[in-house]
Structures are given as C-alpha cells and as structure tokens.
Design goal:
single chain, alpha+beta, five-stranded antiparallel beta sheet, 3 helices, 5 strands
Length: about 160
C-alpha cells in the first residue's frame, strides 16, 4: 500500500510541475508554397480554413465552431485545440485578408496577448475553432492496459 501512495506522489510531482505554456502560432513549414501561406490563401469558409490548417499541421482536424459576431473572441468553445483567426477582407495576395493559425496551450482560453506580430483586434473578422482527432487505437490500448492492471491488482488482493 505504501508503494501505491509513493507512486501516486511521484506521478503528482511529475505532472504537477509541468511548465506553464501560452497559446502559440502554428508556423508554416513551407512559406514558399503559395497554397499554404496564409498571406496568399483567403478562406472564409470553415472547410477551406480547416484544409489550410491541415496542410500546416500535416494532419486533418475536425471543425468545432465559427465565431463571427461583433466580438469574435466571446464564444470560445469548451474544448478547442487550434483556431484560425481571419483579419480583414479582400482578395488572395493582397495585404488583406490575413490568416493566423493558433494552437491552444491546454487551458481552452484564447489568449492573444503574448503573440507577437498579430494585427489589431479591431480588424479581426472571425475565429474558426478546430479540435484534435483522438487516435482511437491508442485510446483503446490505454483503456485495455488500465483494465488489465486493475484485474491484476484485484487478483493479488484476493490471493492474500
């Protein structure tokens, strides 16, 4: 029993001392690629923005919601991982519009204060929120190994 509590204490120390992170920009891995560069690609549709974000990340992400009212930062969904911010309007290749991809730090709050280079919030047209797909095989493996561990613990207690 002492070992069990010591293990819980160790896990608490490891996961309780993780450094605080902030929302960060998703960097374009190939800025010369005209299609994935946010300055050259002008989506206003969540499907197009999701495709652009998927090209940046290297995997597709599911769309959650789009906030385009007078305050596009007021309806932040409870569980988002990525957001696409659109500033201004206009044609591709022009200074307007401007798209920025943001990755959440894990607190599900869209904090743009610490991100350098973003345009003024007054020019923000809308924000599209995206989640992260859950890898089902890994989830099932984790659940299965946990159940096997609990069964082994119960069997050990029954033998005593």
């Amino acid at each position: 029993m002492k070992t069990f509590f010591l293990s819980l204490l160790m896990l608490g120390l490891v996961f309780g001392t993780t450094p605080v992170r902030a929302d960060i920009l998703v960097v374009d891995v190939n800025p010369a690629d005209v299609y994935t560069n946010p300055q050259w690609f002008s989506p206003s549709d969540p499907t197009d923005e999701g495709f652009w974000l998927g090209k940046l990340l290297g995997f597709s992400v599911p769309f959650i919601s789009k906030d385009e009212d007078s305050n596009p930062l007021d309806n932040v969904p409870a569980a988002w991982t990525y957001a696409v911010l659109k500033y201004g309007n206009g044609q591709p290749g022009a200074a307007n519009p401007d798209h920025w991809a943001i990755q959440d730090d894990g607190n599900f709050i869209l904090n743009l204060g610490g991100i350098l280079g973003l345009p003024d919030l007054e020019k923000l047209s809308h924000v599209s929120y995206f989640g992260q797909p859950i890898p089902e095989p890994a989830t099932m493996l984790l659940l299965g190994s946990g159940l096997i561990g609990l069964a082994g613990l119960a069997r050990k207690r029954f033998k005593k």
